[in-house]
Amino acid sequence: MPSLLNPVIGLLMLRGIVTETEQLTARMRRVRIEDDSLAGLDVRPGQQVRVLVGSGLARRTYSLWRYDPSGAVELCVLDHAGAGPGAAWGRGVAVGEQVRLGRPEGSFTLRPDATHHVFFGEETASVAFGAMLAALPEEARISGCVETETPADRLPLRHSDRLDWLTRGATSLPDAVRRLTPEPGGVAYVAGEARTVQTVRQLLVRELGWNRRSVLTKPFWAPGRRGLE
Ligand SMILES: Cc1cc2nc3c(=O)[nH]c(=O)nc-3n(C[C@H](O)[C@H](O)[C@H](O)COP(=O)(O)OP(=O)(O)OC[C@H]3O[C@@H](n4cnc5c(N)ncnc54)[C@H](O)[C@@H]3O)c2cc1C
Question: How far, in Å, is the centroid of ligand 1 from the Cα of 209?
Fold first, then answer.
């Protein structure tokens, strides 16, 4: 990283040290980052942070899988076939390395008071879903579908038995929405690949009668695009 930028980035960004890594699924690696400056942040389930990856010049966004208010964040990074700097960072980052990251942000977050919660997305979205599901009590009404490349890519999510799990290619996420026909009235959380997010949103609003304000969407990536935020 150019040395002139260091003081500026130091002021704007938080920093931490990688204290744990774990292969959570076939292609998803959990990275735990700790520092006193990460203590007591205002974090809502579903929020994300921007991380400086590679040589420090690329910025990629990752959902908070877990937040420990005593000073630790945990991310889960997918090693996808497109192999950009984010995936390379997630694959190679090691205990002891310093990481620079932004403050938690974003409005793709759990609406705790919703009458029911419906989740649609794929591997990358399941990280944010994991944080949201972990915050929901046993009696919450939960449904939805998560699509992964193979069953070995399924993250261990709380309440995962209330979700349908799809293997990519066998059927599509939009087909799963039609099959599930979630009734309007709750909140739907839709994230992952940009075009699928758009299709699922249209299905919920136009075919199933959902109020568009009750469908929260967040494109996480798109074929051919780099580093969506
Ligand atoms: C709000 C938000 C939250 C996110 N949370 C997570 C998260 O928790 N975990 C996570 O792994 N990612 C998450 N992402 C995606 C992440 O920010 C990066 O886009 C992703 O890691 C790819 O970065 P890259 O540098 O490897 O590839 P890029 O340089 O960004 O992209 C290179 C190419 O790779 C392909 N590609 C990118 N992503 C995928 C994919 N998932 N599957 C197949 N092909 C792909 C595309 O064709 C793309 O053009 C999130 C994104 C957003 C906006």
Answer: 31
Tell me the HSE value of 154 on the side-chain side, using a 13 A CA sphere.
Answer: 17
CA angle, corner 49, sides to 44 and 53, nearest 5?
Answer: 165
Q: Following DSSP, what letter does each residue of 34-81 receive, concatenated?
A: E-GGGTT----TT-EEEEEETTTTEEEEEE-SEEETTTEEEEEEE--T
Q: Which CATH number fits domain 3-101: 3.40.630.30, 2.60.200.30, 3.30.420.10, 2.40.30.10?
A: 2.40.30.10
Instruction: For a ligand 1 pocket test, name from 75, 123, 124, 132 the mutation site with the most ligand atoms within 8 angstroms of its C-beta.
Output: 124
Token pair belonging to 155: 């993250």
Dihedral sign (CA 123, 44, 24, 116): negative
Record the pTM.
0.95
Distance (Å) from CA 38 to ligand 1 centroid: 24
The residue whose CA has the least distance to atom 51 of ligand 1 is 220
**Cα separation, 57 vs 23, whole angstroms:** 26
- The pLDDT tens digits for 26-64 are 999 999 999 999 999 999 999 999 999 988 789 999 999
pLDDT band at residue 10 using 50, 70 and 90 as cut-offs: low
Q: How far is the CA of 45 from the centre of ligand 1 (A)?
A: 19
From the CB of 47, is ligand 1 less than 6 Å away? no
117-221: CATH topology is Rossmann fold (3.40.50)
Task: Give the list of residues 6+ apart from residue 142 with CB closer than 8 angstroms, or none.
Answer: 116, 117, 118, 119, 133, 136, 159, 162, 163
